[in-house]
């Protein structure tokens, strides 16, 4: 079951410039910076109430974020929802007809297991499921 909006992911070209902008916009410094080698991205997280904003920048032309930014402008990339049992939620969504981009959950940023739901099966929105490890 989806328990809350965990974060909104924002794809950016220049992580440092975006971090400065969001620091002013949100009136606070980020609480975490992280490199996720498996996804070839650098991330910056801001806590906003009970949710977060994640800035994502590709570190390689082959990363999903870099490829995304060749087709679309900077902006909202995905919505992430916290789940208590990611494997059960993946099975529920598969059974309901959603297309998942992962067969198994993988380790993501911010100490989470993650899985993505294909945008074509979610009204054009990339949805991330995440479970704290």
UniProtKB/TrEMBL annotation:
Pfam families: Glyoxalase_4. Its EC number is 5.1.99.1. Keywords: Isomerase, Metal-binding. It is an enzyme of class 5 (isomerase). GO terms for biological process: L-methylmalonyl-CoA metabolic process. GO terms for molecular function: metal ion binding; methylmalonyl-CoA epimerase activity. The keyword Transport does not apply. InterPro entries: Glyas_Bleomycin-R_OHBP_Dase, MeMalonyl-CoA_epimerase, MMCE/EMCE_epimerase, VOC_core. It comes from the Bacteria. The keyword Acyltransferase does not apply. Residues 4-132 form the VOC domain. NCBIfam families: metmalonyl_epim. Belongs to the methylmalonyl-CoA epimerase family. This is Methylmalonyl-CoA epimerase.
């Amino acid at each position: 079951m989806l328990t809350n909006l965990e974060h909104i992911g924002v794809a950016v070209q220049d992580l440092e410039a975006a971090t400065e902008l969001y620091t002013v916009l949100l009136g606070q410094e980020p609480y975490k910076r992280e490199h996720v080698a498996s996804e070839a991205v650098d991330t910056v997280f801001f806590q906003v109430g009970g949710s977060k904003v994640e800035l994502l920048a590709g570190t390689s032309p082959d990363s999903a974020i870099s490829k995304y930014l060749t087709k679309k402008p900077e902006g909202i990339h995905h919505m992430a929802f916290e789940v208590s049992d990611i494997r059960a939620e993946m099975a529920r969504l598969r059974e309901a007809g959603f297309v998942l981009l992962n067969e198994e959950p993988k380790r993501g940023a911010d100490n989470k297991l993650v899985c993505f739901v294909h945008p074509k099966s979610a009204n054009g929105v990339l949805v991330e499921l995440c479970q704290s490890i």
